[in-house]
Amino acid sequence: MLSWVSDWTLPDVEGMHHMARETCDVLIAGAGVIGVAIARELRRRYGVKVVVLEKESTAGRHASGRNSGVLHAGVYYKAGTLKARLCVEGNRRLRAYCRQQAIPLNEHGKVIVARTEAELPALRELYARSQANGVRASLLDQQALKEVEPCAKTVQQALYVQDTAVVNPQRVMAAMVADAEREGVEFRFGCAWQGRESDGAARTDRGRVTYGHFVNCGGLFADRIAHAHEVGLHFAILPFRGQFYQLRPGSALQVRGNIYPVPDLRNPFLGVHFTRRPEGDVTIGPSALPLLGREQYRGLTGATIGGTVTMLAYLMRLFGRNRDHFRSIAWTEMIKLTRAGFFREAADLGRGFEKADLLPGQAPGIRAQLVDTRTAELVSDFVIEPGVRSTHVLNAVSPAFTSSLPFAEHVVDTMRLA
Ligand SMILES: Cc1cc2nc3c(=O)[nH]c(=O)nc-3n(C[C@H](O)[C@H](O)[C@H](O)COP(=O)(O)OP(=O)(O)OC[C@H]3O[C@@H](n4cnc5c(N)ncnc54)[C@H](O)[C@@H]3O)c2cc1C
Fold first, then answer.
1. Which of 113, 165, 246, 266 would be 71's cystine partner, CB 3.0–4.6 Å?
2. Which domains does the chain have, with CATH numbers?
3. The three-state (H, E, C) secondary structure of the chain, written as one string
């Protein structure tokens, strides 16, 4: 047993006997890729009793099972940021994990193409960042681009990134959960963290859980869980829905790996892109629509009145300040709500693409984007905040899926285990 695991006793409170009680060394809320990876790392490192609470009936029902499945190589992020370091290593480690688990990968890499001359400085900036991060990437002229992605279109130059790969994220989640269970991590599915009791124990919808340390990996709800621990009070999560289409299999546009646009580097999102999944289908997306409800996967389903009021207040502030180019994000995303607008967004990335090639795509995913409420800015880097006997993962946005293995090691390194 570790020294930081307190020798707790359960109070024998009248009326509590009908509730289940549980004790563990580390309690984790959320079985997304981050919660599962941290649970495995804690087990591997310390051999302690780790319990993961997940409100859904299985793991990876939210962002971790509903993303693009792109294992990013690390070209976008400024050198020295957590994202840069953990993504580059995460890409290498997750590809190795997939090979070891016989999970299929598409390893045709990706090209980032310029749609206008005005995008060329940002393309060169991405090349510079890739070099600073030690990522294998090269600038191609149009002829060389044809050899890599025959249908991709660009103005003058494109950036070719060899190590970008694509995986089915649900297969990764299933493998990681199976490994975690074999290694002794205990999952409580269909069990939601509901609050923190005055003595620090967790209240769940199945009873009380006492623990030595608590790790918050609650994704779209991570801010609320942190606030209950008096942590990250100036942060809030703003949900952005990513909608996908699928490329009609007979389309004249052929995609081998990934075709991405040059993103607006002031925004946290990478733009609508073409991605060939290992199963062979090509996804087009995702959009990034700010939402009123955290799990608003369709229309207004998932929006609550309280949540809507809070989200509207943040949206108004972001809009008012025009921070992070928020007005242009919101505007371009509204356009993508229509099929015609979505088509226009992707049309200039490749030859032979037609509106009729847009078929309904995979289930949408929702990004848990952190906002600093003091400045109304969208936070770009990963955020991990310590609390009393607790650790809170607050901005596990893309590329956190790619980065999950070293991300988990980093979180465990930063835990205050006194
Ligand atoms: C559309 C989209 C595309 C993306 N594309 C990529 C990509 O190509 N590459 C990449 O690297 N990343 C990508 N990402 C980002 C990536 O999916 C996330 O960074 C990652 O999945 C975050 O994992 P997580 O475990 O923090 O969150 P989640 O997967 O959301 O897990 C959080 C879990 O906590 C549970 N939970 C919440 N509240 C409670 C509670 N009270 N009690 C118990 N359980 C609770 C939820 O049910 C959920 O299962 C994308 C994300 C989206 C949305």
1. 165
2. 21-69+168-234+381-417 (3.50.50.60), 237-373 (3.30.9)
3. CCCCCCCCCCCCCCCCCCCEEEEEEEEEECCCHHHHHHHHHHHHHHCCCEEEEECCCCCCCCHHHCCCCEECCCCCCCCCCHHHHHHHHHHHHHHHHHHHCCCCEECCCEEEECCCHHHHHHHHHHHHHHHHCCCCEEEEEHHHHHHHCCCECCCCEEEEECCCEEECHHHHHHHHHHHHHHCCCEEEECCCEEEECCCCCEEECCEEEEEEEEEECCHHHHHHHHHHCCCCCCEEEEEEEECCEEECCCCCCCCCCEEEECCCCCCCCCCCEEEECCCCCEEEECCCEECCCCCCCECCECCCHHHHHHHHHHHHHHHHHCHHHHHHHHHHHHHCCCHHHHHHHHHCCECCCCHHHEEECCCCEEEEEEEECCCCEECCCCCEEEECCEEEECCCCCCHHHHHHHHHHHHHHHCCCC
